[in-house]
Design goal:
Blueprint lengths: L24 H21 L10 H4 L2 H21 L20 H13 L12 H16 L7 E5 L2 H30 L5 H5 L2 H12 L3 H5 L8 H12 L7 E5 L4 H9 L7 E4 L9 H13 L4 E7 L11 H13 L6 E5 L19 H8 L6 E4 L12 E5 L2 H4 L29 H12 L7 H22 L3 E3 L7 E6 L6 H16 L7 E6 H14 L8 E8 L8 H19 L1
Parallel strand pairs: 2-3, 2-4, 4-5, 5-6
Antiparallel strand pairs: 1-7, 6-7, 8-9, 9-11, 10-11
Helix pairs in contact: 1-4, 4-16, 5-16, 6-8, 6-11, 17-20
The structure holds pyridoxal-5'-phosphate.
């Protein structure tokens, strides 16, 4: 007799969300209650013999009851106020990158909140910091990094995670440049700023050992430690050409956080070399390589090169693989450039890889996502496609060395006990709630293709269902092509309508949607400066003249899991199309 093989039950996403009609209320409420019971019992049971600070007679006094009443009334006011909050759980909310939260995320967040760990240090987060390390390992594995080697932490969001990448890339470059400046000033070596700034750790270590350069000598020439303008002047002198500071190569579709980073790190917003986009709105590989050469000619080191997996505008996935190939080729020639993937939105699509779920993605997009594993660092936002409450981003590096961030000590000296994060996070005190929400999601939904990946594949299927419905019944909806993921963008235009008139029509429709509680959609505007080729192709499909330098689009983020339900689709999709047609006129 053969042993019965265990077959896991079919995956039921409906068991992982509260439900649009609070369908899972009864058992979810019991779980919340259990978390609370556990918390109160825990408090009571520790230090059992300590005196009570709130004796019964005090607690039952009239004055005490009044204070309770004050809190109860204020709390009711707050909960009443919150009922006017944007309802983001419903499938009718298809506006921004947020939707229904998952139950594991809510349970995990709530449970950790009650214990209030501060992941800045193990002293105030005995458990939270362990959960954080395990949660990061789960995300790292999903992204294709070796989870045993990868390092990272949870942040307030994608913006902070992107800053973490700039911070580390800057320290790395500072080490390499200060070594080269030491050799130039001390020993009279020729200084080629571009190659020095990308020398790589192997060359750095070899040079340092061979030439006997001390920490102090490099520290005296660090732009991070010293006056950066004075060091800049010395770099100019040693290289016999003007030091103009580093650049960042970021796609033209870059998120606003990159501009903030240039600003905050003092690079100047002109420090961007904007990688051109192809006619489909993704980073163009040849254009990218040309920018590296341009930086080399200008003797401006590339602080980091950024690719985007899931753009904020339309969810497109850059050819991360093509950029990784080009960076590998450069590395082979001694030019080591930091590659950061901004996967704030799209990182979770990596969960689809390796199973049937990946078929929802174009093969080129699958290859791009698989190449995230080849990057130096990644930003991923659990508070977007992770269905986890705000504020929860994450910054992850491929290994420990890439994670280290310090002016000088860290690459050589372990300054703090393992797990203490305060010295290597931009933020100080950090909640463990996002880490716990991610951890519990990983423990239950899991970040593999059969479950989490299947959930996201269904959201891409929703986008396709919307496309089909619009193609069939909304004649003015002009779909932005191609759509890589679960974001659907379209403009509203009559045949032959010029871009400016179509933009006005689309803007009008957006305003009408905003004034109407029926469906929440968002709007995005693509500029010709970044998206020229895409805009021309888009307008050409409805024979519209390109008489504007921008394309206004309605944008639907179709991540709500309930759209996978046939009944929801049958009831709400025709209703959406009907309203859209009314607002298109
Ligand atoms: C959302 C997003 C960010 C910023 O993330 P926040 O969590 O809002 O700070 C950065 N990059 C991309 C591509 C994003 O989609």
């Amino acid at each position: 007799m053969s042993a019965a093989r265990y077959t896991p039950p079919p995956f039921m996403p409906a068991a992982y969300f509260p439900g649009p009609k609070s369908e899972n209320e009864a058992w979810a409420r019991a779980e919340f209650q259990t978390v609370l019971d556990h918390w109160f019992d825990w408090r009571r049971s520790l230090f059992r013999d300590d005196p009570s600070a709130i004796p019964d007679d005090l607690r039952l006094s009239a004055d005490f009851l009044k204070e309770r009443e004050i809190q109860a009334r204020a709390l009711r006011r707050l909960t009443d106020l919150l009922c006017a909050e944007t309802p983001k759980y419903t499938p009718r909310y298809i506006g921004h990158m947020v939707s229904e939260l998952s139950l594991p995320a809510l349970f995990g967040h709530f449970a950790a909140l009650l214990h209030n760990p501060n992941n800045t240090s193990k002293e105030v987060s005995r458990v939270g910091s362990v959960i954080e390390a395990e949660g990061i390992a789960m995300l790292a594995q999903m992204l294709g990094y070796d989870p045993a080697a990868a390092q990272g932490h949870f942040t307030g969001g994608g913006t902070m995670a992107n800053f973490e990448a700039v911070w580390r890339a800057r320290y790395r470059m500072d080490h390499w440049l200060s070594l080269a400046l030491t050799l130039a000033e001390r020993d009279g070596d020729a200084l080629d700023i571009f190659s020095a700034a990308h020398m790589g750790w192997d060359r750095f270590n070899a040079l340092r050992a061979e030439r006997g350069v001390s920490d102090e000598e490099m520290q005296a020439r660090s732009t991070v430690l010293q006056n950066p303008f004075e060091i800049g002047a010395r770099l100019s002198k040693a290289a016999a050409r003007d030091w103009r500071g580093p650049v960042m190569i970021v796609p033209g579709n870059k998120h606003f956080s990159w501009r903030k980073a240039a600003n905050v790190f003092g690079l100047g917003e002109s420090a961007f070399l904007n990688a051109p986009l192809d006619a489909e709105g993704r980073l163009d590989g040849d254009g990218f390589s040309a920018l590296v050469e341009q930086a080399r000619e200008q003797a401006r080191p590339v602080l980091l090169a950024v690719t985007v997996a899931g753009t904020t505008e339309a969810g497109e996935i850059d050819p991360v693989d093509a950029v990784a190939d080009r960076l590998d080729a450069l590395r082979g020639k001694g030019v080591d450039i930091w590659h950061h993937v901004d996967a704030a939105f799209g990182g979770f699509f990596c969960a689809m890889l390796g199973g049937a779920a990946q078929q929802a993605l174009d093969p080129a997009r699958q290859r791009a996502l698989a190449a995230v594993a080849r990057s130096d660092s990644v930003t991923i936002d659990p508070h977007k496609l992770g269905y986890i409450p705000y504020a929860c981003g994450a910054f992850i590096t491929r290994d420990k060395r890439r994670y280290q961030a310090s002016s000088f000590q860290a690459p050589y000296i372990e300054r703090k006990a393992e797990g203490d994060k305060w010295s290597c996070t931009l933020e100080g005190s950090r909640s463990a709630a996002g880490a716990a929400a991610t951890w519990l999601t990983g423990q239950t939904l899991g970040f593999g293709p059969e479950r989490f990946g299947a959930l996201l594949a269904a959201t891409i299927d929703t986008r396709k269902a919307f496309e089909a419905a619009l193609a069939e019944a909304a004649p003015l909806a002009r779909l932005l092509r191609p759509a890589d993921t679960n974001i659907l963008c379209f403009s509203l235009a009559r045949d032959g309508e010029a871009l400016s008139a179509a933009n006005a029509r689309t803007e009008r429709a957006f305003e009408r949607f905003q004034a109407d509680p029926d469906f929440a959609v968002s709007q995005t505007v693509l500029s010709a400066e970044s998206y020229g080729a895409l805009i021309a192709a888009h307008a050409a499909r409805h024979d519209g003249a390109v008489d504007s330098d921008r394309l206004v689009l309605l944008r639907l983020v179709l991540m709500n899991p309930f759209w996978a339900d046939a009944g929801v689709r049958a009831a709400l999709l025709p209703r959406f199309v009907e309203i859209l047609n009314r607002y298109s006129a």
